[in-house]
Amino acid sequence: MFLEIFRMQIRTRLTLQFVLSGVVIMIFASFTIYFTAARFLNDDFYNRLRDKSLGTANLLFKEYEVDAKVVRKIEKDNPVNLQKEKIIILNFKNDIVYNSDEFGAIKISQPILDRVKSGDKVNFREDLYDVAGTLYFTNFDRFVIFGAAINSEGAAHLNELKIILVFVCCLSFLLFFIVGWFYSGRAIKPISDVVKKVEEISITSLNLRVFEGNETDEIGRLAKTFNKMLERLEASFATQKNFIANASHELRTPLTSINGQLEVLMMKDRSAEEYKTELQSVLDDIKSLIDLSNRLLLIARTSAENPMSLNNRIRIDEILWLAREEIKKYNTNYQINISLGNSLIDSDQMVVVGDEYLLKVAVSNLMENGCKYSDDHTVNVRLHHFRQSIEIIFEDGGIGISENDLQKVFEPFYRGANAISVSGYGIGLPLTRQIIKNHNGNMELLSQIGKGTKITVLLPIIS
Ligand code: ADP
């Protein structure tokens, strides 16, 4: 339905535009042809009139000096006469010398007479008659001659031309419509095909692609861009699907464990000491469940479009000390050494804008990982001032990450081969990277198996 309306609209619009342009051009051309022809026919008629009246004047005054009565008689029967032809000749005193206008159909006003006397060739219309006035010279005198006739032949020609032009115009409008309809249909066909294909694509068939055709034209480029968007959508849907599957799995593990432990506990009566030990284990599982759901919530919060208000001024060194303190509360064997790099940094160069809690989560993750994945449970944290940023380096001499895992450790729930015997969920690094990204920062990970891991975080400071 949508496809039909879409196609109809563009097609009709294109056709109408085509027809309209054609109509304007055709009407303009027809008017030009008509008026040029009319002018030509008129000029030609006046010239013929003038020639005829000059011929009569010649008969009267030049070659034969024929008597006016005879001339009138000759002219009356002349087969080349124009329709209702009249010739009037006056001398300069305005006396009529010759006149074939017996009934006085032609009236000549004084201003026209004056204009002709002054040498102008005057053409004008008197009722149905076209009149041409000229000055005529003999050896001894000057005369004013007027030739008049009805140009019915010219009018008939013009009428004929008008009918032809109207017919050609109407026919061309029809042709414009047919051709426009055909070509606009052809022009939008690739778009219609794309729309048809797009309608077939849904969340369950994101693997489908639109035909890219000729990639160099606009429609080809549109299809290509659309396909790229589909690729990104497909990838992001796959990630989401994975994420949900992994999250459910991670949540189910402690829940199953709690369930099992409580069922075993209920099987028979136990001593207070036994209850205490079992409940402690259940409590540990619940704590890890809370920790996991907190992290999942944080991931959701940091990945949202407008994740948080990042407008607090925060001293990054204070965050590091706070994080260190909290970690050490539960992991007394962890060694976290914080130092101020080689360069001297003043306190202003350590102020970043952001969310205190999230930044603490990020640096805690990196500190914990450094300790967790090294035998000496030690991580060295160094602060540097770097251009308009603060650089925080987390370095440990631990087990390191294999090259294969280096690519994947930022994927949610991915745990490296080195982490089999270490507890965790695989969401620390992705969460940290998301937080740093939200703070317009950058994160770089370098690691070598057996040698250790170095993570560099760059955060912009306010100066
Ligand atoms: P978790 O530590 O809970 O497994 P993380 O997202 O923090 O999850 O880390 C993902 C993986 O990256 C870990 O499973 C581990 O394989 C690897 N990793 C992270 N930090 C280090 C480190 N400092 N040393 C060695 N491996 C690390």
How would you describe the overall organization of this protein?
With 463 residues, the chain is α+β, with helices and mostly antiparallel strands. The chain has three domains: 2-157, Beta-Lactamase, CATH 3.30.450; 218-301, Orthogonal Bundle (Helix Hairpins); 308-460, Histidine kinase-like ATPase, C-terminal domain (Heat Shock Protein 90, 2-Layer Sandwich). Helices cover 55% and strands 17% of the residues. It has ten helices and twelve strands. The chain has a five-stranded antiparallel sheet. A hairpin with a 3-residue loop joins strand 11 and strand 12. Helix 5 packs antiparallel against helix 6 (272-303) and helix 6 (272-303) runs parallel beside helix 10. The longest helix has 60 residues, at 2-61. It is rod-shaped, with a radius of gyration of 51 Å. The relative contact order is 0.07. The mean pLDDT is 88. Bound molecules: adenosine-5'-diphosphate. The site of adenosine-5'-diphosphate has 22 residues, from helix 8 and helix 10.
Based on the coordinates given, report the CATH architecture of the largest domain. Answer: 2-Layer Sandwich
Structural class by secondary-structure content: alpha+beta
Bound molecules: adenosine-5'-diphosphate
Q: Count up the helices.
A: 10
Mean pLDDT: 88
Identify the CATH class of the largest domain: Alpha Beta
Q: Number of folding domains?
A: 3
Shape: rod-shaped
Would you list the SSEs in sequence order as H and E? HHEEHEEEHHHEHEEHEEHHEE
Radius of gyration: 51 Å
Main sheet: strands, sense, barrel: 5 strands, antiparallel
How far apart lie the N and C ends?
58 Å
Helix content range of the residues, please?
55-70%
The number of E-state strands comes to 12
- Percent strand equals 15-25%
Q: What is the fold named in CATH at topology level of the largest domain?
A: Beta-Lactamase
Strand order of the largest sheet: 2-1-5-4-3
Q: Which parts are unreliable, with pLDDT below 50 for 5 consecutive residues or more?
A: none
